[in-house]
Design brief:
2 helices; about 10% helix; single chain; globular
């Protein structure tokens, strides 16, 4: 199955949806800017496999994060499938890098659950996956990082609280 080759990349995408920084700001300021909710969107295609993700992640002061969103997955041999995703992680900032360890991932095929016997995406993600990403930009509105595992650059926008 060709699409299995992109699973490491997909794993990295799920784990690293969300961070960034500037090198002249203190650790405290960087973490302070990271706190809150971010919306991350990503799409990629490799070897005929297409993945698109729309994901909201919330970073809190206790080093925990929670995220919810959807993943669209299309492989040549399968119909386009939509998954709902929820994930919990521990995170820390260290020397210009965001390090995240996923403690729980839940993926549910909401469009074609009958294909889970052939292609069960959730079963391909072990718990406690750790990922390190270089923080490229972090300010009050933008978060941008580069994954150490695959070199992919991710961007997120700050979600403003509605009063």
């Amino acid at each position: 199955m060709k699409y299995l080759r992109v699973l490491p990349l997909l794993t990295s995408i799920i784990i690293t949806t969300g961070c960034s920084t500037s090198s002249t700001v203190s650790n405290y300021s960087r973490m302070d800017q990271l706190y809150g909710s971010w919306n991350c969107k990503l799409s990629m295609e490799e070897e005929g496999v297409k993945v698109a993700m729309d994901y909201d992640v919330n970073y809190v002061r206790n080093g925990k994060s929670n995220g919810f969103g959807t993943i669209m997955f299309k492989a040549p041999e399968l119909p386009e499938m939509e998954y709902s995703m929820a994930a919990s992680s521990n995170w820390e900032y260290k020397s210009g890098y965001l390090i995240e360890t996923t403690t729980e991932i839940k993926l549910v095929n909401i469009s074609h659950p009958e294909f889970d016997e052939v292609f069960n995406l959730e079963s391909m993600f072990p718990q406690n996956i750790s990922e390190s990403s270089e923080i490229l930009v972090l300010n009050n509105s933008e978060l941008k990082l580069k994954s150490e595992s695959d070199g992919m650059v991710y961007s997120c926008d700050k979600v403003l609280n509605k009063s």
